[in-house]
TrEMBL record:
SUPFAM superfamilies: alpha/beta-Hydrolases. The keyword Hydrolase applies. This is Pimeloyl-ACP methyl ester esterase BioH. GO terms for molecular function: pimelyl-[acyl-carrier protein] methyl ester esterase activity. It is an enzyme of class 3 (hydrolase). One of its GO terms (biological process) is biotin biosynthetic process. Keywords: Biotin biosynthesis, Cytoplasm, Hydrolase, Serine esterase. Gene3D superfamilies: alpha/beta hydrolase. Its EC number is 3.1.1.85. The keyword Cytoplasm applies. GO terms for cellular component: membrane. Residues 8-233 form the AB hydrolase-1 domain. InterPro entries: AB_hydrolase_1 (IPR000073), AB_hydrolase_fold (IPR029058), AB_hydrolase_sf (IPR050266), BioH (IPR010076).
């Protein structure tokens, strides 16, 4: 009897939309059922005026018709954590890449950032989304210059929707959300992929997740930054396919 096709959701990060995965999707197994929704107020998704990570997870859960494997990048990874905690029967496995349990540092969480630079990016993205999204992505490719054609291929579709309506609200949600308390209760196996050159979500954030998620494995791509699925796409896709196919 043939195994049913994997049900897979790819969840983008702050200030982006589902087109960020346009290069990754063709690299994944052809028999997977792949969904790439936009988070509220990003891409073509409507914005109700507020952004809440738990509510975004609940909205996603309502779209999932059978247990799914969830890839979350950056903010999308935290949405995936809330999804796994609040709707465990919907989640077969997780892949969290360049993500976090909590973004900002705290006395009991030195892994976070003490002075997030993302706040400065709100004004820049709002001023000229195409220009600053291109600069942001170019920074990710500093250590993978041979992959630059990927950037030129995906950028037009990423920026065609303009700056996300939820730009500030989603950043506020990043600052407020904290998944640490429920990490030990997440039963789904989790693949963690981080970039050694990532200054937004440094590897120490992945190491924290690895210590507190009971069924996790951690890979660090030393020359990747904040978007390893773009800059090291072949390696990333191979790890992801192997992990999800084992779950």
């Amino acid at each position: 009897m043939q195994n049913p096709a994997k049900n897979v959701y790819l969840i983008h990060g702050w200030a982006a939309n589902h087109h960020i995965f346009d290069d990754l999707v063709p690299r994944l197994p052809a028999d997977w059922r792949i969904h790439t929704p936009d988070l509220p107020g990003h891409g073509a998704a409507p914005f109700g005026g507020t952004f809440d990570v738990a509510a975004a997870a609940d909205t996603l859960a309502a779209q999932i018709d059978e247990p799914a494997c969830i890839l979350g990048w950056s903010l999308g990874g935290q949405v995936a954590l809330y999804l796994a905690a609040r709707h465990p029967k919907k989640v077969r496995a997780l892949c969290l890449t360049a993500s976090f349990a909590r973004f900002q540092a705290a006395p009991d969480y030195p892994e976070g950032l003490s002075n997030p630079a993302l706040a400065k990016m709100v004004a820049l993205f709002g001023q000229d989304y195409h220009k600053y999204m291109k600069q942001f992505l170019q920074l990710q490719f500093l250590y993978a210059k041979d992959q630059q054609p990927i950037l030129e291929k995906i950028l037009p579709d990423i920026v065609k929707h303009g700056a996300p309506a939820a730009l500030q609200a989603a950043l506020d949600a990043v600052a407020a959300a904290d998944a640490r308390a429920f990490l030990p209760q997440i039963a789904a196996p989790a693949l963690l992929i981080f970039g050694g050159k990532d200054s937004i979500t440094p590897p120490r954030m992945g190491e924290y997740l690895h210590r507190h998620l009971p069924h996790s494995e951690l890979h660090i791509i030393e020359k990747a930054a904040h978007a390893p699925f773009l800059t090291h796409a072949a390696q990333f896709a191979a790890w992801l396919a192997d992990f999800f196919n084992r779950c």
